[in-house]
Amino acid sequence: MVVLAKGELAQIALPAAQPPTADVPAVDLSAPPGPAREAAARALVAACEENGFFRVTGHGVPAELARAAEAAAAVFFAWPQGEKEEAAPAVGYGSKRIGVSGDLGWIEYLLLGVTPAGAVPVTFASSSTLPCAAAAAGSSSSSTPASPLRGLLEEYTVAVRRMASAVLELMAEGLGLAGAGALAQLVAREDSDCMLRVNHYPPRPAAAEGGGAPSLLTGFGEHTDPQIISVLRSNGTSGLEIALRGGEWAAVPPDGDAFFVNVGDTLQVLTNGRFRSVRHRVVVNSERSRVSMIFFGGPPLGERLAPLPELLGDGGRSRYREFTWAEFKNSGCRTRLAEDRLSPFEN
């Protein structure tokens, strides 16, 4: 349930639109060594260069695990509002507010940090895809009891994190990097700053269907993800849109069995701008709930980030100055969702 104060519904209203359908390339992670894997690596690199968005097949994540996690989350979101708020410390529950700068959405969510001890709820009210480094580091599982839902989401996170590492290994091969683990190790280390976010977009409210009220609402406003990559799965309800290279929006075809991968800001930096951090949003346009689970693969807080030397090109010019992931996160906490977080770090 999302409760908006008077006037807040108007803030997230969108004009009616019917964007074209996005052509989403597929990359097969199970391709065997040899020509097939080389072709998959080339396809992955091409997708990252074009729109920074693709779907993966042959990923190895059990379908029954994904469906069970999604179903358990849907049951939680169906609870009475008071019970969800009471359970918030155990599962990182929040609603409508995205970040601390005034962004709103027709959304409620769960937010869990990934630590060596397991999934840790991020319970501060300011949480978004980019919680402040200090707040995230201060989360602790010692003060919040585990729950069956959290345990299932933790199992799901382990499987998707493994898949994210496989994506980054194939990506390193396609880029011709010296080590296959050059990118994967950034999200696979014990101190890597990874997160799982489960978003629930309830059906659009009845008030939005008549009387001149908007038929479309902002579920999650336009933004790029700050991490290296994000891996998303949804229940097959429409609403996700990506911005194409020319800036126009395109609707991602709903697919309840697919895993989609976003290029994040940090990967754009590591590739010196060769890969494109994809701008995306969720529009609430359906009478059916949308549930999506997103794994955000981030590096350790102290990791120093800059374009990889192998990807600087003949001129050797770096488009971005070196910074730590903690520095980037803290900078991003002060911005609105739609703002360009990378511009302060450009040379």
UniProtKB/TrEMBL annotation:
Entry coiled-coil feature ranges: none
Molecular function via GO: metal ion binding; oxidoreductase activity
Occurrences of domain Fe2OG dioxygenase (ranges): 191-299
Cofactors (names): L-ascorbate
Tagged with keyword Iron: yes
PROSITE patterns, A to Z: FE2OG_OXY
Keywords from the UniProt entry: Iron, Metal-binding, Oxidoreductase
Keyword check for Secreted: no
Domain of life: Eukaryota
Transmembrane segments: none
Family from the record: Belongs to the iron/ascorbate-dependent oxidoreductase family.
Protein name as catalogued: Fe2OG dioxygenase domain-containing protein
Organism, scientific name: Urochloa decumbens
Lineage: Eukaryota, Viridiplantae, Streptophyta, Embryophyta, Tracheophyta
